[in-house]
Structures are given as C-alpha cells and as structure tokens.
Amino acid sequence: MNRERSGGDTVAAGIWNKEKENFSRGKGISRKIFLQLEKPTEEDSRSYQQRILDGLKGKNIDSRMTIRTMGKLYPLCDQAEWEITVSLAWDGVQWWIVDAEAGDTTAFHYGYAVDMGSTTVAVQLWNCETGECLWEADSYSRQISYGTDILTRIFYCKDDPDKRKELQKASIDTILDILKEIEKNTGIGPEQCIQMVIAGNTTMIHFLLDMDAFCVFSTPYAVRADCPGFFGGTELGIPVKGFLYCYPGKSNYLGGDIISGVAAMGLHKSEEIQVFFDIGTNGEIVIGNKEFLLCGAGAAGPALEGGSVRTGMRACEGAVDRVTIQDGKVCCHVIGGETAKGICGSGIIELLSELFLHGWINFLGKLQPEKSSLIRTMDGLPALEYAPGLYFWQEDIDEFIKTKAAASTMVEYMFRESGLSLDKVSRFYVAGAFGKHVNKEAAITIGMYPDMDRERLVSAGNASLAGAGMLLMDKSMLNDLDEILDKMVYIQFGAVEDFLHMMVAAQAIPHTDMERYPTVRKKLAEIEEKNKGA
Amino acid sequence: MNRERSGGDTVAAGIWNKEKENFSRGKGISRKIFLQLEKPTEEDSRSYQQRILDGLKGKNIDSRMTIRTMGKLYPLCDQAEWEITVSLAWDGVQWWIVDAEAGDTTAFHYGYAVDMGSTTVAVQLWNCETGECLWEADSYSRQISYGTDILTRIFYCKDDPDKRKELQKASIDTILDILKEIEKNTGIGPEQCIQMVIAGNTTMIHFLLDMDAFCVFSTPYAVRADCPGFFGGTELGIPVKGFLYCYPGKSNYLGGDIISGVAAMGLHKSEEIQVFFDIGTNGEIVIGNKEFLLCGAGAAGPALEGGSVRTGMRACEGAVDRVTIQDGKVCCHVIGGETAKGICGSGIIELLSELFLHGWINFLGKLQPEKSSLIRTMDGLPALEYAPGLYFWQEDIDEFIKTKAAASTMVEYMFRESGLSLDKVSRFYVAGAFGKHVNKEAAITIGMYPDMDRERLVSAGNASLAGAGMLLMDKSMLNDLDEILDKMVYIQFGAVEDFLHMMVAAQAIPHTDMERYPTVRKKLAEIEEKNKGA
C-alpha cells in the first residue's frame, strides 16, 4: 500500500492533526542547523571541526562530530564559503553532527517512523522541519515466509544463530523494500533521512536485533532486551545518517508498539481516565491517566483477523467487510467491488451483529434455522450462506464469540481491578489495523466493545505508527517513556484465577449480564416493538 | 621490534614506574565487572538486559548496552547461571556494555596504547586490571611506500578521495599487522581488548581518519579536525570490543602525540616549571607548570634522524650509534656488532662532540685537516673517514649544525618569551625515539641541549606512547586534556621575526655565546690544561 498523506485520511487523521497542533520546529530527535561561519585565517586557525562545534555552541547546542562528517568537511566548507548546514542526531544523551552540506538545506530535513507488525510493516516519511507526513507505505513482512504466526517463526530459529540471522535479514529487508518504494514516489531516500523511530512488539524487535525470541512465550517471560534505545543505522545496514531508535517495551506481551500507542494517545498526561485497547491476535489494554497506568495483555485468538474462520481472510480485495440484513437477505459490501472470496474481521462483526439483531442467532450465538432459509446444514453442520457459495458455520461463530469474550473480559477485568467505571473514562481508544475499520455500533452490539457513549469510543488507527512519528518530532517524549514504563503496572491475565470464569460469562451476545449493555437491550426492545407492530 | 615488557627497560621505565605508582584499579576508560545476578522468575521477569543494567546500577554504574551485547545474552546468561562478566567501554560521556562473558573473567582485561608515528608505529598491550604493560611491538608504517616524508604522502592523495583511502588503509593495516604480531606472542587479540588509545601527530590522525591533510602545512594552518574523540573500532575495521580514542591536538604542528607526552609527563600538574621537548624531523617544545603552558613547534630538519647526512641511517643494525676518539683513532660502536654501514643520529652527536673536544673541528664546525690524517679531501670536499670507507663530509656537519641550531633556538626562544631561566626548571624532558638514545653529555657539548644540571635533564623515551597507555588506565586524564588544550598558548616560530637571527647565533659549537655553556667551557679548559701538560 502506498499513499501520499493528504491529512484528510480517515482514522489516523485525528492523531495526525493532534500532532500538527503540538508541532514545534527544532524540538525533535534530529535537527538541521544552517551555519554561517568565518573562514580560517592565520589569526584564527581553529580547525574546521572546532569552528562548527563553536558555531553550534553559539546556538546553545553542545555536540560531537562523527568521523564520517569530519572526512566531509574539506573541500565542502571551502566550496560553500563556510555557509553550511549540519545534520544533528540525538543519541539519547547527546547530539551528534552526522552530516554537513553546502548552503542552507534546512528545508530538506527528513525522518522515518516505522510500525513493525508481525504481518504488516508500515513506514511514514516525515518532513521534520514542517511536521508533515509526506508519504506512507506498507508491505507484508518478509518474515511471513518463515510462518504466518509468530510462534512458527520463533521455533524456526530457536537456538540456531544462522536462522536467527535469516529472520533479522527478513525484518531489515522488509524495511528497505518500503524505503525504496517511498523513494520511488518522493525522491527521498534513507541517505537524506537523519533518524528512524521503530515501534514494534517484543518479538519483532527481538528478530530485528538478532535476539532469540523464545523468551517472549515461555516462562518466566523474561525477554532478552526491552530497551534497545538508539544505535547506529549502519549496525543494521539501514543507511540513515543518524540513529535507529526502538521504542522500549514493558514486558513480553506489552511491547514497544503499545508503549508507542499509549504515548501517542497521551494517556500518561491526561487529567481524566482514558483507555487504550489494541486488539488483534493478541489484545493489550492500558487504562489510566497521569496518576496511574494499569495494563494487561492476553491472547484474543486469530478470529478477529479472519483466521480460524473457514472462509475468513484479511481485509484485502475480495473480502466482505460490511454486512447488513435487509428483507431477509444478507447484503455484503466487498472490498474492490468484485465477487466475494471470504470475510474479514470487520465483516464478521457486522454479520454477527445483524444475525443477532434479526434473531437469526440467539444470545448464545446459536443459529436459528427457522429464521431464514439461508441457514441450513452444510457438510453436516449448521451454517449460514452469507454470500453465494460462502458459508459461516456455527463453529466459526462459537470461535469468534470466544475471541470477543476474551477481548471484552480483558476490559472488564481491568475495570474491576482498578475499581473504576466506564462513566469515568473520557476516551476509550481502540487501536490496531482491526480497530481502524470496525463498525463501533456492531462491535458494541455483539459485546466486543463495552456499551458506552459512542463519542468517547475512538478508533485510534495505527497508534503505534503515530507514536513513532511523534517521537521523531518531539524529543521530550523520551522522558515520557521513562515515566510511562515506570508507572505501568502489568497484570498477566493467564495468572489471574477467575479470568476464565469471567470469560465464560462473556460468551454470550452481548453478555450474560445484560445490565452491562443498556443500549443493546434498548435496541432489542425497539426491534421487538417493531416486529410486534408488523 | 618486539619485546616483552620487563619493567626494567632503560628509558621508558621512569614513566612506567611512575604510572604503576599511580595505578588504581577500575579508574580506566574500560572496566570489567563480575556480576552475580538472580535468574528470572515469574515474579521477577525483568529482561536480561535490565537485570544487567540494574546489577551495574547496584555498583553505581549507569550504562547502556550495545545491540551486539544484547544478542549475546542468551544462552550465555543461562549457561553461566547468571554469573557473568561485562566489559564496559567509556565513550567520553557514558559507559557502554560492549560484551558479556560467562563466569568471572575480570582478570582478562586488556587494552592497547598506540603511538602513530610518521615512520614507526608502536603498540603496547596492557593488562588494564593490573596496570601492567604485557607486550610492546613496533613496525615501520605502511605509509612509507607512499613517501618517506610526510609531504610526499600528503601531495600523493591531495584532493583525491580514493588515494586518501589508500593512506587510511595503510595506517590501519600497520596497526593490524602489529596487533597480529602481539597476538602471536601473547595469545591476546583485538577481540579480547576493550579500548585502544592512539596518540599521533596531526597528519597521522588525518590519514587514519580519512581526512585531507594538506591543511597541516598550508596557510592558514586550520586543520580539518583536532578532537576526534571516541569512535567505534568497527568504523575503522579495528575489531576491539569498545572504542578507539585519538588524543586531541592543539594545532597543526602540535598534535595528539605532543599532548599525550605532556599529559604523561604531567607538566600541567607540576608545581615547578618543567619543559617537554620532542625533537625529530620537527621539534616541539612545551614549557610550563600547572599555571601556564607555553608551546612552540618548528622544523628541525632531517639531520637528527640520519637524513641529509650522506652516510646517515636510522638506528638499526649496522648503524654507528656511539663514537669516541682515542689516541687519534675514531672508535665506533655498531648496532648489531657487524661492519658499520652508516651513522645514526646518536652516533652523529657523539662524533661531533668528540671532534670538537679533540679540536678536529673548530667552534664553527670546520674540519681541521692538520689534526688528523683521517681528515682529507674526498670527492673534492673536506671529509672525515669515521669508519673504514665511511665519510662524514664538511657539508654534513654544516647541515647538522643548522639542525641543532634550530632545535636549541626553539628552547632559547621559549625561555626568552616566558621570561624564565633554566635554573627554574625542575625537569627538562627530552622525548622521542631520538631523545631516547642520545648521549646527554655529547648533546650538551655540541649545544643541542642547554647546559644544565644533568640530573634535571631527563630522557623521556616514547612519551607519546606512555601517555596513550596512561589514559587507558586513568579516565580522569580526559579532563586533564581539556585543561591542557585550554592552557596551551601556541607560538608558530615561522612567524617570529628574530627567530632566524637567534638561529644564526646558535650555529656554533656549542654556541656563539659561550656564557650559555659554562660546563662545556670548563671541559674545554680542562682539555687545554691537559694538552699543555702533555
């Protein structure tokens, strides 16, 4: 996927505009400074290096120079008549002069933000001088050829350094592919960019940095490294001028992608209580404000991404992504407009919501054959034909309900633990590629999202990528991260005794306790009323 | 040259012992720390990285970890049952954990000191845990194939980046050659060493770091870079675990080798006034104490290193290095004990001193044929046959006198400028390979060294190399360097109007002003007395 950022893009736009508002030139983790220096004389024969260091000191910037830059100073400075622009890269502790160019090139100041997902890697090219995102592109991860799920990949290279190197190379090559794509579209390549900020889950960062990731999923869940910090781009063969920065993680399941998302949404700065909920194959939830951050993570299951559903698929061409039931017919919207090939997560949610509201499934999710001729036995099992030749089986529904139950139980559990109620929550952010496309109303109806004020339920889009971009532009976020990591109190759901009991209670539509879903109850009452009238 | 350091080595021993006295474990720019850590549990699932960072914090060390080290932690920590040793490298601002090893390996803590001379490169391998120098080896620089003198090399690669790369490679390969030699003798290679400190003159550092060095010798003498500081060994392909550090320079002619020497001798800390004088092809002089440092530099000429003298040669096998005149005969000591092939600097100084004391040359250095049948016309010019078939011509003497006049004028000038007298000097260090072998008495007799208390005239040996080793073992020297550079007031002799007049006055043996050489005058009087008696 490849697109020029218009600023009007649906979901990420919120964060994007938020970022723009706060943008302040020269506050990022890279800088470009134009210097007009006096040329050397016998009276003032300070070295080329010293003249530049002194020039920056005159602008209150203490810095060091890389030897690569030292090698560039001659004949550059003389040819440019000592009017030069230096590129500065922050390494977490100090500024490094990582490049020098003739003339005033401050307008050409770029950096990358990367969201390193298990399936998809997304990169944004930013103009760090104006705070504009110039381009965004993504691509499937090359890691997929080592397994679609993370565990397969981890086992592939476990205790085999050579194979671990393969995974690392796949990670790096995926990034390089996208950088090339961006360069093709913008003319701006990595050599013109100073910094790259990467947000990824713990396993992805382990693979990227050539670390064994078995620890992420095996007791006692102590990962190899969670604070990679800044390191030279050349160490990984990504030829930016300055450094790569990886967002730190909190624990095995709460990686840099979540920290990045939380930082982007600003939970840690909020006066009011906010929730950050990222759901996909795994679910991660953070609830808190500037006083506290309670967080949890657990497996949700592949159902939300169309896995485990027989005709499930990712949200790409041919996938049913919107469903309504009208006049006894199932009406599907298909991505790309062609014949439906399967159904993706957002389609499943709408399908289930519609089935439930029309009584085609009961509150336990069981298909009611008497309600429609589209519900019939197929391959010996009850199933719904939602599109010509495409079926949604009872077991698909059961699987999905387990997944949504896991997701909603995480939320429920966290609220119980914190002693808070949803009324107190000013923003409930749902993040992730999945959260971006889902129909809020449908997700509430089936009990996947809590029943709350729709205004306060916000699709955050790719918050991890947004956080990466924001850090590029705002060095002070590094301090926030220490604060976030420090404040976060982590609960591993697997360790909670009554989690399973809670999850069973959530395995109804919307929930066994209908008190939790007043708007759904109201909706059902209205439908009943209408049916009575008909 | 290759030798195990016994500690009893003639000249450097002084510095060496001085260093040993001040040695304090754990104060260097590298450290090895043994950690006994708790292994991860579900209750304490801090990352491997964090456990180590916390372990060091418990020892009051804040540090960062390289991604290379992160990649090593598994299975290392588990296999070692969490008893590991980390290698720490200082980068000028912070400690980096650059390696982790199983068990307690603190005893295996090594580093390199390098003196990067134009002709010879010398390397010492240090045990940084005990403050012992384990081995020293040197080698001709591979740069020599691009020209024996520096200017030829500079012009070879001027404005040609590819050729500059050749010079850089020659510099690095010379170091690598010597490291191999040291490894052959000690079993310790660069991968086991943490840091490398390099002291070299400005041109050598420019070549090493791939910088154009034409600036060193051309007006306005603003060099490209004079404070390279710390940088990754891998950046130059020198595979130490941590960093390379290059001593900073003060100016074009006062490079890191001199700063290193001054730091080693401790002029900047001395209550009393001291002099540091390094003579070779160029002469550099620093005079001062903890209050001030006045310094100067200028060309001395190649005569001191056996250049420009027709039968001159470096101090290697076959070179006459000691000379006496007895019973009308010239008695030569030859390095290696074989037939003399030529004469080196220290031999020339003794020869001239003997010729003068025996009246074979007058105070202007002119040969007196009536004094010996060994003085005769050869190739149409007056010459002395100092060894069978080997001649020292009148023009060789003239050339040498010019050189020694340049050297002694530097000293004279500096004293005049500072308004000081030699009586006030507690130590007069003569450094450099040349200073190491020269006969003090002879050098005073011919007026190359000032006529002063012999006790206070100290051969410092390779002070530049000594300073490199000391910095390896003493991080606080980095602060001293800022102080030294700050205090140094530099006088470029070429710019001094009456320098030439002073030099002409010094072109006599020992000097036109005999008042300056009371002990030589006394010696001459004694000889005259003896001759009268005979």
TrEMBL record, chains A, B:
It comes from the Bacteria. Residues 31-106 form the RACo linker region domain. Pfam families: RACo_C_ter, RACo_linker, Raco_middle. Residues 272-520 form the RACo C-terminal domain. Residues 110-270 form the RACo-like middle region domain. This is DUF4445 domain-containing protein. It comes from Candidatus Blautia faecavium. The lineage of its organism: Bacteria, Bacillati, Bacillota, Clostridia, Lachnospirales.
